[in-house]
Amino acid sequence: MASIEVLKKVNLFESLSDDQLNAIAKLGQEKSFEPGEEIFKQGQKSKTLYVLLDGMVTLRIKAEEEIDLMAETLRETGSVFGTASLMKPYISNVTARCLKPSRTLAVDSAEFQEIIKQDPLMGFEVMTKLAQLYFNRLNTTRAAITNLFKIFKFQIRKSKIFDTYGELK
């Protein structure tokens, strides 16, 4: 069981009351992973929400051409991943792999969703934070794509990408 002091530092839970955090803490189990170990794989059924306690985890996207793109590296205590476990169709859209020995808090998403059903305000707060997390990750990805265009001076005819981000020099 995690302490509510740890959960208060988790962005997804920071606006919750102590009672709400206690309910989540009862669901969590600490799990450790070794470097190179896969926590979950893209395309698998997602059943667990993870909170990074310490270590380093990379979230990667596997593309059609066997290209493995890094989506994000999590280093900060309180970083959440496995968020697909909270949204239909509950399928992981990334692969999570440890880069360093890592400790996580693993929260069973089915049990977590039951708590949210009983406390809709809690669900609203968590989902609002989850939407912000995805919005931030989307913006980070957009910036990375824009930088790739700059690095490779990608030559394509003027398109909506350039209309949105401006012509790259």
User: What average pLDDT do the residues reach?
Assistant: 87
Report the sheet-strand fraction. 25-35%
Low-confidence stretches: none
CATH class: Mainly Beta
Distance between the first and last residues' Cα: 53 Å
Secondary structure: helix percent: 25-40%
The CATH homologous superfamily is named Jelly Rolls
Please give the largest β-sheet: 6 strands, antiparallel
Radius of gyration: 18 Å
CATH fold name: Jelly Rolls
From the 3D coordinates, which CATH architecture would you assign? Answer: Sandwich
Number of DSSP strand runs: 6
> How many domains is the backbone divided into?
1
Could you say which overall geometry the principal axes of the C-alpha atoms support? globular
Number of helices: 5
- Secondary-structure-derived class: alpha+beta
Order of helices and strands: HHEEEEEEHHH
Textual characterization of the structure:
The structure is a single chain. With 169 residues, the protein is of the alpha+beta class. It has a single domain, classed as Jelly Rolls, CATH 2.60.120. Helix content is 38%, strand content 28%. It has five helices and six strands. Strands 1, 2, 3, 4, 5 and 6 form a six-stranded antiparallel β-sheet that branches. Strand 3 and strand 4 form a beta hairpin. The termini are far apart.
